[in-house]
Amino acid sequence: MRVLVAGLDELPVRTAYDVWRLRQQVFVVEQDCPYPDLDGRDLEDSARHVALIDDEDAVVGTLRVLDDGGWARIGRVVVAPGARGRGLAAVMMDRAMALCGDREVRLDAQTGLTAFYEAYGFAVTGPEFDEDGVMHVPMSRPGGTGR
Question: What angle do CA 35, 36, 38 make, to 5 degrees?
Answer without folding.
Answer: 140
